[in-house]
């Protein structure tokens, strides 16, 4: 009986000891490192990525499964699940500085950072693993579904080298984010969260089911497409408010769950270097929005008077080509069953296309309560852009377009690239009540038809109105 009591006491001590450990309360073990020689047959990540991409001679690749003859692949850890922003996944890149490729390794073990800390050099045993794409990025896992490596096999599959390298983030601008940066540690500088995101937490707002998506913008270009900063709703810092000010963010370039857009994902709040007192300064016109249009019509253009596939030239408007051959031209939109105008570089061959469509000038001192409204759509705009600008020092001539001062209308909504191409999106009721003098509104299209057509999309415009009280 005494022996049985001793056994119960021992079990109680063991149970209490384990119950005191929080799920994420781990430290990297302070162990004497065992020098690991690079296993025979170790390859760079680029080798297996190229093998995958060329499985069908440059056509859409299919997952490839490795065997014992394929050896190992090496890389450096650039993700960390210490803060809960990653779960049972390890992202590695092929070099600690200036990487060219990275891969997501699925591993059914948590936490991983206690052994595979940030910067740790690792060797992945390829035998039995499959390389493919999951959520739009290169992924190593089990089977064609790229499932997680069994917990019992993780430490046999992922070998830890004694080296922990200093990871140097790759300096990129927001506009440079593309698929060649996926699964790599970058520093996006000169950015800030949009005004509409300030005051929000990283991932505890209504609608943050699995992740919190917050938009960041570059300070270099007001019209540049924002990038999504994504945080898991299981992250330790999910309840912290996004930082004000502006600066740089270190993180991984990934894709969202449905592979619809790029996201930037950090390991911890320490990956932010923001000056809280400084926000980006843009040369913009921001009068806010109005409840609705005014009673008096100053401009009401539906582009019904144009001839298909010819330059759009309503009375008093200016159609100006700054670069290339593309101009705004009239067409019939079957989805709206109505004429409209459009600009696109598709099949133009232009190295650079800049096309302006400018309203007649209006004396904004002659009335009050001016409100602008218009509708836009796009067809695979990609990197092409449509800017909505205002100037009150333009002389009204084509020759004066490029020398005038043009400021962005900050409150105008232009159709996002993600919108279904048949849909026209309202700009909203944009107040112009804070501007003065004689001015005009310009719709400036920019694109090109080079480098595989990354910016040869088009924008459509219809129903431009300016009203007043």
TrEMBL record:
Keywords from the named record: Signal
One Pfam family from the record: DUF5689
InterPro entries on file: DUF5689
PROSITE patterns found in the cross-reference section: PROKAR_LIPOPROTEIN
Domain (DUF5689) ranges: 67-260
Span of the signal peptide: 1-22
Domain of life: Bacteria
Name this polypeptide is given: DUF5689 domain-containing protein
